[in-house]
Amino acid sequence: MEIFISTAWRWWLVLWPHVLATSILAINIAASVHAILTKRDNRSTISWVGLIWLSPVFGAIAYAVLGVNRIRSRASRLRAGTRAIAHELRHAVPDADRLRAAIGPDHAPLRSLATLVGQVTDRPLADGNTIEPLAGGDEAYPRMLAAIDAAKRSIGMASYIFDNDPTGRIFAEALGRAVKRGVEVRVLIDGIGSSYTFPSIVGVLAGKGVRAERFLPTSVPVYFPYANLRNHRKIMIVDGCAGFTGGLNIRDGCWLVHKPRHPVRDMHFALRGPVVAQLLEVFVEDWEFVTGESLANDADGNPGAGTSPWTPDLAFAGTAIARGVRFGPDDPDIGRIKLVLAGALAAAQKNVRIMTPYFLPDDAICQALDVAAMRGVQVDIVLPDHNNLALVSWASTAMLWQVLGRGCNVWMSPPPFDHTKLMVVDGSWALFGSGNWDDRSMRLNFEFNVETYDRDLAARIDAHIAGVIARSRRKTLAEVDGRGLAIRLRDGVARLFSPYL
Questions:
Q1: Same domain, yes or no, for 356 and 313?
Q2: Which of 226, 244, 400, 479 shows its CA 20 to 30 Å from the CA of 168?
Q3: How many whole angstroms from its chain centre is CA 185?
Q4: Are 354 and 299 in the same domain?
Q5: Is 345 helix (H, G, I), strand (E, B) or coil?
Q6: Is the distance from CB of 395 to CB of 491 less than 8 angstroms?
Q7: Using an 8 Å Cβ cutoff, are 400 and 367 in contact?
Q8: Are 188 and 290 in contact (CB under 8 A)?
Q9: How far apart are CA 82 and CA 77, in angstroms?
Q10: Residues 300 and 193 reside in one and the same domain
Q11: Are residues 62 and 136 in the same domain?
Q12: What pLDDT digit, counting tens, does each position of 458-495 carry?
């Protein structure tokens, strides 16, 4: 027995280096094959394969931890069982003559943009809408509360943040009154956004009979890998006919007349017409994903067919042409919103105006901005001078040279902090909603925007941004380059984390 053990041990001493080398080789080959097959960017692929082979074991571990896109795969798996909801909007789709009158000739840049966004979203443009800008909570909250109090059939609300504060409790009271009147009410709050105040507003809503759920509730660090999958959408649909969306959360800081300690400017939008059905589609999908409850009641998955309280009202209410743009971490490949933004920048002929609280676009979007500016398009980017997230502000400053150096204009708006998210092209096309110009919105969050080809609305939004620019200070390349060494190092380190800020 001792002779057998001794012999086996000697064989192991001889063989273990070969076993280890073979194992490392197999791991390196597997990691390299995965990188080659899944990475779309050649530079990224070369970098990871080089690290894998030049740093055995460490390179493969680093790739497994940091290189594999788990966010998209997890999002796709999570949403795999959710039915895609699509209302029949055939009667609202504008014909060729209507498109020529509203947008331009067949080969005009904005017509090409409309074709692009249609392919990206797989949803049609809808005619017959009224879209009204609302200045922050001061205008939006009273209108939303009035719509809740007037509701007869259904109220669907999704919000990233719904605070348990005076404003949140006013909404909870209104929603509770609607439930008592027999209105079907569903409220969806992001799992992280619901924890911004303690105790959560969910308990308050439940106490008033309101059905409220959290989107992917999380207990960091137990479920930390899912913390990125946030529902950042802000949507409310009342009776299938009145819609509200934009950048506005439900919290006291956005109601400036209440003189909050941390005031926040924002812009929201009231919508009526067939495009509201596209808001309802997104809410119904998200609600079914979270709760398993289907608000669709026919075999084809159409929400609110027949006499359901969730039936959309498809009647015309105005003349604006618009389309909902949903996007998130379950998007295929590059992501819907990046294609939309790049297409809009390519379509611009005269000017582009952008407002966003968080500006951390990737290189491709920066290049699209630069190309527009170098073509002679005036590109104005408005950012808050005092950001509510210091790390984001530092990282954003570290990358501004990419756009300032090619002719884009950057303007820093004065306090209070401006959370508005807008884009206007040539005073004729506008984009608004929940999405920011950062990787978190473009890659990690579930978002919802609306594009519109209504010239009057686009002109109003353009004038609003021009007014903000008039009271803002200009950020120059000399100012960015003139930062001290310590500040540049701080900002540069912050930029390393920009994909997750």
A1: no
A2: 226
A3: 24
A4: no
A5: helix
A6: yes
A7: no
A8: yes
A9: 10
A10: yes
A11: no
A12: 999 999 999 999 999 999 999 999 999 999 999 888 88
Q: What is the pLDDT of residues 343-371, one digit of tens each?
A: 999 999 999 999 999 999 999 999 999 99
Question: Phi and psi dihedrals of 463, rounded to 5?
Answer: -65, -35
Tell me how crowded residue 347 is: count the other CB atoms within 10 A of its CB: 22
Query: Which one of 295, 320, 345 terminates a domain?
Result: 320
Q: Compute the half-sphere exposure of residue 265: CA atoms within 13 Å on the CB side of its CA.
A: 21
Angle at which helix 336-347 crosses helix 363-374, to 10 degrees, equals 10
> HEC string of 429-452?
EEEEECCCEEHHHHHHEEEEEEEE
CATH code for position 494: 3.30.870.10
Q: For residues 452 and 429, is the Cβ–Cβ distance under 8 A? A: yes
According to DSSP, the β-strands at 378-384 and 409-413 are parallel
Interacting residues of 372 by C-beta distance below 8 A, sequence separation 6+: 345, 346, 348, 352, 379
Question: Same domain for 351 and 314?
Answer: no
Residue 344 makes CB contacts below 8 A (sequence gap 6+) with 113, 352, 423, 425, 429, 431
Is residue 190 in some structural domain? yes
Cα–Cα distance between 251 and 285 in angstroms, integer?
25
Report the number of distinct structural domains present in the chain: 3
CA distance 103 to 109: 9
Task: Please name the amino acid found at residue 75.
Answer: A
Residue 16 clears pLDDT 80, i.e. is over it: no
Domain closes at, from 68, 84, 117: 68
**446, part of any domain:** yes
Angle at 48 between CA 45 and CA 52, to 5 degrees: 135
Tell me the two tokens of residue 309.
């309280």
Find the farthest-apart pair of alpha carbons in the chain and give their distance in angstroms, rounded.
95
DSSP 8-class letter at 500: G
Q: 193, 249 in Cβ contact below 8 A? A: yes
Instruction: Supply the range of the domain harboring residue 182.
Output: 126-320
**What is the three-class DSSP state of 234?**
coil
Q: Is 369 within 8 Å of 331 (Cβ atoms)? A: no
pLDDT at 52 over 80: no
Distance separating alpha carbons of residues 368 and 354, to the nearest angstrom: 13
Q: State the DSSP H helix or E strand holding residue 321, giving kind and residue range, or none if neither.
A: strand 320-327
Helices (H), 302-408: 336-347, 363-374, 390-399, 401-404
Mean pLDDT of 15-24: 70
Same domain, 212 and 356: no
Give the model's confidence band at 29: pLDDT under 50 very low, under 70 low, under 90 confident, else very high: confident
Under a CB-based contact definition with an 8 Å cutoff, are residues 93 and 65 in contact? Answer: no
Q: In the numeric block, which tokens belong to residue 284?
A: 């119904």
Region of residue 128 (left: phi > 0; alpha: psi -120 to 50; beta: else): left
